[in-house]
Design brief:
The protein is of the alpha+beta class and 619 residues long. It contains 27 helices and 19 strands. A hairpin with a 4-residue loop joins strand 6 and strand 7.
């Protein structure tokens, strides 16, 4: 786990380069390396996980000296790939021992030397890779299938720059001096709570797409997709429950085993939910020693915590359990740091507890395993129930009058009223997501954003496949897999953990498991209204079912109450600042409704505060 950056096509001062390096030092404090090639350079900040010796530092050259790599992430199947490389007729060993390190970086680079861009199909891992070919003066970029590892780029006036975080690009004042905001990003942020790829808050900076590689030659960048979740679909789904449970357990065990570090200590996030409990159970089964587990709760007594459940699960599994209680002071200290940690407006308030629990884990370990991906693959969100409901022709026909009627009810009914009221059937997936997350509806965006800068949302949510017809629930889940998981959840975890110099590994996002899960019949995921049914059947082999006989709770914070109490002054200062993007008059109306009892509006105000704080810090 590391941080990478580089520039192609222009020479920059040591001051610019040092500023870029220092800006992402948190991603790797073990070593900083840089390699220059005239008007090009590749740079790397290292957090040593695999082969922690100096021999494995980056940038690293291939055995033949032609290729140079900087890379962020982990290749979990590197030992298997090593054997395949060694057996290739064109493999040129590095001396008597064949290899100069025991790192995955060297194997990755030699695999590229043998197979070129097609080597990426052989990788099982999370990665953002940059390789420079000295002979052809070509630069190659690669990003993992689900977008676990971040990669941003700037491409203007024949200058190309890339980095693990936007802050590294911004630290180079020669590049960033003329950056403008992308106004469309503000619309999409208020609608979703995050900015979907390839857009960022800056016009001149893009997110490099997941599951893609790029070839930069003579100043021109060509990006190609090498994997798609839809391409893994089969004509017939797997519907035999017994076989599916056995196969799913086998794939997941292999995925967990691949992700267990061999040279550094590790722990797991244990929230007490289905996904983290299953991952923890499998880690403990495969580990030769008692593992450390970590759970977070809130001092707020009226807020439901899963800490007692997590403790019971830990006791059943026999883990060494650690708990941290988040206080009001913790939150007050942390919220002002969010913008600098995430580089652009980021609306997921669960980033707060994620940062805090990551700090706790990082005091003892370099690596943690987490359960991300289970909800998207096994229908764990309430939005999937709404996708089914809104596909009912009768409800669709009478949605507007029902919506009007419900709008006169309490907060819960008002929220349902918003869900039922949609104008564009082609935006139904994002609409359901938006309103489930308490974000702004499309029709509200033009009011809250000043008319002279407003731009309508523009991302593509069309989902079609020739191999088999997808249900509305499958389409809703694919939308989450493509956007919410990649551009919100994985961003949240990456920045929160790397801010604390911690690597997080996610076994449920192994592409082999993802491809299998996408072909499990819907009836085994959502059975008689029970979400994650088949995943639970695997879990119950490890943990008693009675420990999960409770409603699903998210990993959020009691933000709505805090905004009326301990954070009230802080938020009022932010909400009513003057700027060119947000319509202050509309904010004042919204805030009055919130204070009068419309509690569900809290997240809309939170999103506005994120934009306002970002603008204040970037004047």
């Amino acid at each position: 786990m590391c941080g990478i950056f580089g520039i192609i096509g222009a020479e920059f001062s040591n001051e610019d380069i040092n500023a870029m390096s220092e800006s992402i030092e948190h991603r790797g404090k073990d070593f900083f390396g840089i390699e220059k090639f005239g008007d090009k350079f590749l740079a790397h900040r290292r957090l040593g996980i695999v082969d922690i010796s100096d021999n494995a530092n980056q940038p690293m050259f291939s055995h033949n000296g032609r290729y140079c790599v900087v890379y962020n992430g982990e290749i979990y199947n590197y030992l298997e790939l090593k054997k395949e490389v060694e057996s290739h007729s064109n493999f040129v060993p590095y001396g008597e021992n064949k290899w100069k390190t025991t790192s995955d970086t060297e194997i990755l680079l030699e695999a590229f030397s043998l197979w070129g861009v097609n080597f990426v199909h052989k990788l099982n891992g999370m990665f953002a890779v940059a390789i420079y070919d000295k002979e052809s003066q070509t630069t190659y970029l690669f990003r993992d299938r689900l977008g676990e590892k971040p990669l941003f780029y700037y491409h203007k006036n024949d200058v190309f720059a890339f980095a693990s975080e936007i802050k590294a690009l911004k630290a180079n004042k020669t590049i960033s001096k003329d950056w403008n905001f992308d106004n469309q990003a503000f619309s999409e942020f208020l609608y979703l709570g995050y900015i979907p790829a390839p857009r960022t808050v800056y016009e001149d900076v893009k997110k490099f797409p997941a599951a893609s590689y790029g070839i930069l030659k003579n100043g021109k960048l060509k990006i190609e997709k090498y994997w798609s979740a839809l391409d893994s679909l089969k004509a017939e789904t797997f519907s035999d429950e017994k076989n599916v449970v056995e196969k799913l357990e086998d794939i997941l065990l292999k995925s967990v085993e691949l992700r267990l570090p061999k040279e550094v200590s590790f722990g797991t996030f244990l929230s007490g939910g289905i996904d983290s409990s299953l991952i923890t159970a499998m880690v403990q089964k495969l580990s030769a020693t008692t593992i450390d587990t970590y759970t977070l709760g809130f001092a707020e007594k009226s807020f439901v915590n899963e800490m007692p459940w997590a403790k019971k699960i830990s006791q059943h599994l026999g883990t060494n359990h650690h708990e941290v209680i988040v206080s009001e002071t913790d939150i007050l200290d942390l919220i002002p740091k969010l913008t600098s940690i995430y580089d652009e407006p980021f609306g997921d308030s669960s980033a707060l507890p994620t940062i805090i629990v990551s700090e706790l884990v990082s005091k003892n370990h370099k690596v943690a395993l987490a359960g991300d991906g289970g909800d998207e693959l096994f229908f764990g969100y309430g939005s999937y129930i709404w996708a089914q409901r809104l596909s009912n022709p009768l409800l669709r026909t009478f949605s507007n009058p029902i919506s009007t009627l419900l709008s006169f009810g309490g907060n819960r009914y008002k929220r349902v009223s918003k869900l039922l009221k949609y104008d564009d059937i082609n935006r139904i997936k994002s609409h359901i997501f938006s309103q489930e997350q308490y974000c702004f509806a499309i029709k509200d965006l033009e009011k809250i954003i000043n008319s002279n800068v407003y731009k309508p949302i523009g991302f593509d949510e069309d989902i079609s496949t020739a191999i088999r017809k997808l249900s509305v629930v499958e389409k809703q889940a694919h939308f989450d897999l493509q956007y919410y998981l990649t551009d919100d959840l994985l961003v949240k975890v990456d920045r929160a953990s790397m801010y604390n110099t911690l690597e997080v590994r996610t076994p449920m996002l192994d592409h082999n498991l993802v491809e299998y899960a996408l072909n499990i019949d819907q009836s085994l995921k959502l059975k008689n209204g029970e979400a994650k049914y088949v995943l639970k059947q695997v879990l119950y082999k490890y943990v008693p079912a009675e420990l999960y006989d409770r409603p699903k709770w998210g990993f959020g914070a009691p933000l709505s109450k805090w905004m009326k109490t301990i954070l009230k002054d802080y938020f009022e200062d932010l909400l009513f600042t003057e700027n060119s993007i947000i319509n202050k008059t509309e904010v004042e109306k919204l805030y009055k409704k919130y204070l009068s009892g419309y509690d569900y509006l809290y997240n809309r105000l939170w999103l506005i505060s994120r934009i306002n704080e970002f603008l204040e810090l970037n004047k």
